[in-house]
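Quick one, tokens below. Sequence please?
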């Protein structure tokens, strides 16, 4: 069963009324599914794809045959990611983009369309981890910087991605929030405010476009071993952080990539406005 036929089956588009035929098709897919690349021929924008979670997601999309557009401010690291994307079986380009700059985000989306014709999926993931001071001590400039990158950046990306998805009749967006998007974390006022903002923005955009074929979801990683986390924690802090996780380990970028791919895929065709927490049980307590 081709990915397109499977999509038609899942969306009921052209579905036969013969239940047996439908059941047989699904069983055939279950058997052959591992040979089907689920993002073959699809274009995916990954912001923050030069490093960490975005890099792992870009490579995972590549492994599923996607055309990946890396939008980031780190060119050398982006080229490194693209090499891995190609090795995994995908293709891609890098477009230098500061997600806080409207004109750069618009140009990046237009370059995506110029290169690949259509936009199917977007992962708005670029962000910074920031904290270490109490709310009243937070410098205003730091507040503005964190909110600009983590929240306004996601808004600007959706602002230019959504019209392209509407043109093709649908798409999927995954925004990277954080466990800091669902609980408070002392010492991180701006970060937590920005990530709660991403969750609210995601739910609202999901409702705005629920009838237009665009699904909008968020992923909430727990502490994940990416360069800023590895650099920012000494062994003692790392051990303390690990001890707080019921599963007894930190997240890996690949854990988050798997959650992002599932939310982006046709397997999640009835999922929108959802906040998928991947934190080893940390916020279940
Ligand atoms: P990372 O630093 O490895 O990757 C972030 C990427 O975003 C970098 O490549 C960076 O260059 C890019 N970026 C930063 N500012 C940008 C801008 N203005 N425009 C374009 N690109 C920009 O960090 P990561 O840990 O992989 O974080 C990815 C996302 O996951 C962030 O939104 C972060 O808040 C979120 N997150 C991370 C963790 C964690 O523990 N690592 C936990 C929860 C949420």
């Amino acid at each position: 069963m081709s990915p397109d036929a499977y999509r038609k089956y899942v969306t009921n588009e052209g579905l036969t009324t013969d239940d047996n035929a439908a059941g047989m098709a699904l069983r055939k897919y279950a058997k052959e599914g591992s040979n089907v690349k689920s993002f073959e021929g699809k274009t995916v924008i990954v912001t923050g794809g030069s490093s960490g979670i975005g890099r792992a997601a870009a490579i995972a999309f590549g492994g599923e045959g996607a055309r990946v557009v890396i939008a980031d401010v780190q060119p050398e690291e982006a080229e490194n990611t693209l090499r891995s994307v190609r090795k995994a079986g995908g293709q891609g380009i890098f477009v230098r983009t500061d997600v806080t700059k409207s004109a750069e985000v618009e140009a990046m989306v237009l370059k995506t369309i110029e290169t690949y014709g259509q936009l199917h999926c977007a992962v708005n993931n670029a962000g910074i981890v920031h904290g270490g001071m109490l709310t009243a001590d937070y410098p205003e400039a730091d507040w503005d910087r964190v909110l600009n990158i983590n929240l306004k950046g996601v808004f600007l990306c959706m602002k230019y991605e959504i019209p392209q998805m509407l043109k093709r009749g649908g798409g999927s967006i995954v925004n990277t929030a954080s466990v800091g998007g669902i609980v408070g974390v002392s010492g991180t006022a701006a970060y937590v405010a920005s990530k709660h903002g991403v969750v609210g923005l995601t739910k609202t955009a999901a409702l705005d476009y629920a009838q237009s074929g665009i699904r909008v979801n968020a992923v909430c990683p727990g502490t994940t071993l990416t360069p800023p986390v590895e650099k920012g924690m000494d062994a003692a802090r790392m051990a303390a952080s690990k001890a707080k996780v019921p599963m007894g380990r930190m997240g890996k970028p690949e854990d988050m990539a798997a959650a992002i791919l599932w939310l982006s895929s046709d397997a999640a065709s009835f999922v929108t406005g959802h906040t998928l927490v991947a934190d080893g049980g940390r916020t279940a307590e």
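Residues 47-48, 50-54, 72-74, 97-100, 125-129, 149, 153, 176, 178, 221, 223-224, 226-229 surround nicotinamide-adenine-dinucleotide (CB under 6 Å). The chain is about 50% helix and 15% strand.
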